[in-house]
């Protein structure tokens, strides 16, 4: 009689332990699924951010090309105005005077120089933006790579191993 009581108690303990193990395994499966979903969501967000950074990078590169072309276009008028001013300064004696046309040429050279300097400043700012975007792109690509590797480990390796976890009945020894 005592033997049947002990066997029944042990059997109940074994069944409860197997049920607890299976419940815990199910909780782990749920937590793993949530982790995979969260990681996938973060990866998707990072990929959208990367796409936006690449678009901004293309825009900045186009702007830089336009600024360089504008600076090159300013070169010919600058040379022309400087040549006219130099030719004016080479005039002999009385003809070499500071009259309104002379001041106009000086103002023209100054104006073109300021315009070129402003374009160069914009180009430098665009180059800094480009460097920042390239750095951001590298960081995003690295982070996406890490997230994809994490997803691969969670999906392919961990889930595959966990798929072999026995059922509650198998844990109880009934299979």
UniProtKB/TrEMBL annotation:
One of the protein's GO biological processes: cilium movement involved in cell motility
Predominant location: cytoplasm
Coiled coil spans: 43-70
Keyword Nucleotidyltransferase: no
Domain of life, per lineage: Eukaryota
Localization per record: Cytoplasm, Cytoskeleton, Cilium axoneme
Keyword Electron transport: no
InterPro entries noted in UniProt: Tektin-like (IPR048256), Tektins (IPR000435)
One CC-aspect GO term: nucleus
Keywords, ordered alphabetically: Cell projection, Cilium, Coiled coil, Cytoplasm, Flagellum
Family per record: Belongs to the tektin family.
Protein name as it appears in the record: Tektin
Organismal lineage: Eukaryota, Metazoa, Ecdysozoa, Arthropoda, Hexapoda
């Amino acid at each position: 009689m005592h033997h049947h009581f002990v066997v029944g108690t042990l059997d109940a303990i074994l069944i409860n332990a197997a049920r607890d193990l299976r419940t815990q395994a199910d909780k782990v499966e749920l937590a793993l699924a949530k982790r995979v979903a969260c990681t996938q969501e973060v990866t998707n967000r990072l990929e959208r951010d990367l796409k936006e950074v690449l678009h901004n990078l293309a825009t900045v590169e186009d702007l830089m090309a336009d600024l360089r072309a504008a600076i090159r276009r300013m070169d010919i008028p600058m040379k022309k105005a400087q040549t006219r001013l130099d030719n004016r300064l080479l005039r002999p004696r009385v003809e070499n005077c500071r009259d309104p046309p002379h001041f106009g040429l000086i103002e023209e050279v100054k104006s073109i120089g300021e315009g070129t300097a402003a374009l160069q400043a914009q180009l430098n700012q665009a180059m800094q933006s480009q460097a920042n975007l390239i750095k951001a792109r590298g960081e995003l690509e690295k982070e996406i790579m890490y997230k994809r590797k994490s997803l691969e480990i969670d999906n392919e390796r961990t889930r595959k191993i966990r798929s072999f976890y026995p059922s509650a009945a198998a844990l109880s020894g009934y299979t």
